[in-house]
Amino acid sequence: MLNIILLPLLSLFLSDFFMIWLILEISNFFFICSMNFSMLHKKMIFFYFMIQVMASFTIMMTLMFNSLLFKNNFTLIILILALMLKLSIPPMHLWLPLIMKFLPWKIMFILLTFQKIIPFYLLSLLYLPPLFIFSSILLCSILPPYNMLNLTNFKLLLAYSSINQSSWMILLISMKNIIWFKYFLFYSFISLSIFSLFHLSKMFMSSNYFPSQFKFNTLFTILMMNMSGLPPFSFFYMKWYSLFIFLKSSNLLIILMIMMISSLLMLYIYVNMSINFFFLMKFKSKLINLNFSYTLTILFLTYLTLFFSSILFIF
């Protein structure tokens, strides 16, 4: 498990495209091994393996035929599409919701965070055509909120939320600024708190199965408000700063409007989900008492998300 975390971070210190791709494949190998030990649905593991094989083979072929010069626009587009498949960016995103329902919380967290570091880093090293930037931001901003409106499965909601966050990542990567990694760390901190909360409660998270403890409800609501980018939580300042940097370097107001509309839609989804969770849900599951050590762990992660992540914003 430690290798899955360290290898993506190691790639950030490299600039050779082939070496970064090699580390990506090694990281995928360790991740698939971890899935094999943690999951009972072996078909989903094989499905994920085939998706990664197709994307990796495409990347390898583009490197072989173009020798990293990227003078051929067609080769560049194929390479970007392969990275989009690895990142589950629309329209290459359909595989992610299919496997998400069968993943344990720990594996799901790694897939949505650490496994995306290297592909995003590779995108930051490439020239991204304006048409790709606009179309990707549009699809990542509109499709996830639309698909989330009638969902009740929490794993699917978090999967589509991750796809929606990709629009912000692409926006920041297009500016060739290291701020994209700061934004990714913000998102990772919040995701760590949410997934830890669900993992420690040891429950199947759907609309009909929640523990009714006041502490659990309160922590869940705080984390959802932070994820939605609602002020005064830390993620709001990160999004505000990202838009500020974008406006300083670009005059594309249409992209700004798309991002703002998407944020409002996601805010509605998160707030509506939290209100139903806190006030209106009829709890049908057996009550689960979180012991003292679990409560301290969740409180610590929440504190880390809300306050310590602000250090990243300063630097």
From TrEMBL:
GO terms for molecular function: NADH dehydrogenase (ubiquinone) activity. It is a multi-pass membrane protein. It is an enzyme of class 7 (translocase). It comes from the Eukaryota. GO terms for cellular component: mitochondrial inner membrane. The chain crosses the membrane at residues 12-33, 45-70, 76-99, 120-144, 180-198, 218-238, 250-271, 291-314. This is NADH-ubiquinone oxidoreductase chain 2.
